[in-house]
Write a structure and sequence with these properties.
homodimer; 204 residues; disordered N terminus; DNA-binding
Chain lengths: 204, 204
DNA sequence: CAACCAACCAAGCAATTGCTTGGTAGGGTA
DNA sequence: TACCCTACCAAGCAATTGCTTGGTTGGTTG
């Protein structure tokens, strides 16, 4: 492993650079639409040279998705393990999600667009596993919220989970890092809608 | 055009059958992952025979998406043109969307998964146009709702539109026609969350 | 019956694709 | 100097892919 003079691991190895380039291509054009020649050209090398770093195109998406998921779920676990109240935890989970879109838009897009097809292959079975994990996280958060009285008691937790998950992740399709709205702003607005709804409150 | 004995147009021409088969394949495996041989095999014919009905694989998605969009936007326009109040129109638009997922799950899935990539090609420029139309519909509904006092005045209409659009359509990824929840039920639950939020109301 | 036609088959071509192989340039190290 | 190792090139192979072409079949119609 290459290291800088001061002993810290070098921030971006060639391998990581290539992975980032591949991720961008996969995200914008789709996995199957992206050829290894595309990736190589974007990196300024020949297609064959990619196989010095990776043993297949499949390995590239695999590694991209794996590292991304590992980081994301680490953050979810941290929230679950904290001692904040139920509503705060829910809000944090939403914020973390939007922050992830901000920091890893390509990775999220790939996951969003390709997970369904790729999940069919044995190699990507962990995607389904992560899906179950994700569901467990959100369901826990929601049930805790109901139990604590922070969320409506009649809530269809399963449906609510799906709506949250969908809305949060699909935002990657339109959210642009560095754009007019910050991820914090978007998360805050979304939480307002989710928690209080869009209807005007009746005077009671 | 083939016609039944009683003079009505035959409900499903061979062409329509093949389109339906192709749509299913595109939806489940993705456009690029689906080969013409896959489609042909699913139809019980050889791949070359498909070219008696269509002149390219591209034409197949094109036709699938075009007819789907035409029907959908026809229904949106009908709602806009009606004389119901703002809130009712918004609810109807949501209901129509979930009903569309129920009736044309494959078409919605294709649109959801492939529109982004395909939109880059000139042939599919109408997808972007339809996107603008869709935005116009929802923004109108939301602004009318705010104006009528049915929706909160401080609403970020643009963000709200995106959240609605995303959540509604992405449901195609998990909604199963004929499953435990009817599309009417899902629409009703979703509207509750959207309009009133998931937070418990404070006693005031 | 003769003509026609929609629907299909059989075979294969040309381009693209992921990937392999053998070799080379150049910087670091003993 | 001799060696090694990372990163790359040049060339091309084998499989897959979308699509073409010429021909066959079976039903319908004048």
């Amino acid at each position: 492993m290459p290291e800088a003079a001061d002993g810290r691991a070098q921030t971006t190895s060639r391998r990581e650079q290539l992975l980032a380039i591949a991720a961008e291509q996969f995200a914008t054009k789709g996995y199957k639409f992206t050829t290894v020649r595309d990736i190589a050209e974007a990196a300024g090398i020949l297609s064959g040279s990619l196989y010095h770093h990776f043993d297949s195109k499949e390995s590239m998406v695999d590694e991209v998705l794996r590292t991304f998921q590992a980081e994301l779920f680490g953050r979810y676990e941290a929230i679950l393990a904290s001692d904040a109240d139920a509503r705060t935890k829910l809000e944090q989970a939403v914020e973390v999600s939007f922050e992830t879109i901000d920091r890893h838009p390509h990775e999220v897009a790939i996951f969003q667009n390709e997970a369904a097809h790729l999940g069919a292959f044995e190699r990507f079975a962990y995607l389904a596993e992560r899906n179950r994990e994700s569901r467990a996280v959100w369901i826990t958060l929601l049930e805790d919220g109901v139990r604590a009285g922070a969320l409506r008691a009649e809530l269809d937790v399963e449906l609510t989970y799906r709506f949250i998950r969908d809305t949060v992740w699909v935002a990657v399709a339109w959210y642009r890092p560095g754009g007019r709205r910050s991820h914090t702003e978007v998360a805050r607005q979304y939480l307002t809608i989710l928690l209080d709804g869009i209807a005007a409150r009746e005077e009671s």
